[in-house]
């Protein structure tokens, strides 16, 4: 599991068992060790968006709705009514009209405008992501609003 990056999940555990030399199939590992109802099974704990925002606030963080353009099953404007601080209105997958829409919603619901490249791959060298850290920029006014929000925590 030394090569695993990020969250370790059941497939990582099954792979580690096989790589350790145990003569078990993935099906056997899931059916007998890490599948639902097995001794080593740990269920996921889910919380509501409101609970998540509250936990972030209690811990002194600001909360930002990330890449709203990718949200398909929920009315995005309904989400703006929640008590988060900002929205990633500037995002590499947005069309120009998406960015305008999210900026307008941010203004309407008094949210900070943020931006992001969504680049998570400092260890990736394959060039599979079109943006790098720093490729997405904010204007000075939005940077100041973000910093002011952080200072008020």
From TrEMBL:
PANTHER family assigned: EXONUCLEASE, POLYMERASE_HISTIDINOL PHOSPHATASE N-TERMINAL DOMAIN-CONTAINING PROTEIN
GO molecular function annotations of the record: 5'-3' DNA exonuclease activity; 5'-3' RNA exonuclease activity
Organism annotation: Clostridium sporogenes
Source organism superkingdom: Bacteria
SUPFAM superfamilies named among the record's database cross-references: PHP domain-like
InterPro entries: PHP_domain, Pol/histidinol_Pase-like
Protein name per its UniProtKB record: PHP domain-containing protein
């Amino acid at each position: 599991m030394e090569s695993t990056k990020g969250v370790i999940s059941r497939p990582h555990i099954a792979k580690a068992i096989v790589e350790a030399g145990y003569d078990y199939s993935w099906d056997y590992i899931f059916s007998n060790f890490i599948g639902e109802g097995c001794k080593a099974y740990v269920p996921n704990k889910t919380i509501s968006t409101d609970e998540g925002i509250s936990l972030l606030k209690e811990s002194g963080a600001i909360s930002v709705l990330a890449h709203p353009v990718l949200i398909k099953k929920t009315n995005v404007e309904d989400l703006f009514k929640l008590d988060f601080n900002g929205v990633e209105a500037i995002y590499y997958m947005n069309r120009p009209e998406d960015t305008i829409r999210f900026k307008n919603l941010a203004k309407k619901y008094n949210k900070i405008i943020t931006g992001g490249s969504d680049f998570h791959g400092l260890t990736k060298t394959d060039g599979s992501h079109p943006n790098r850290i720093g490729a997405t920029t904010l204007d000075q006014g939005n940077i100041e609003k973000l910093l002011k929000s952080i200072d008020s925590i």
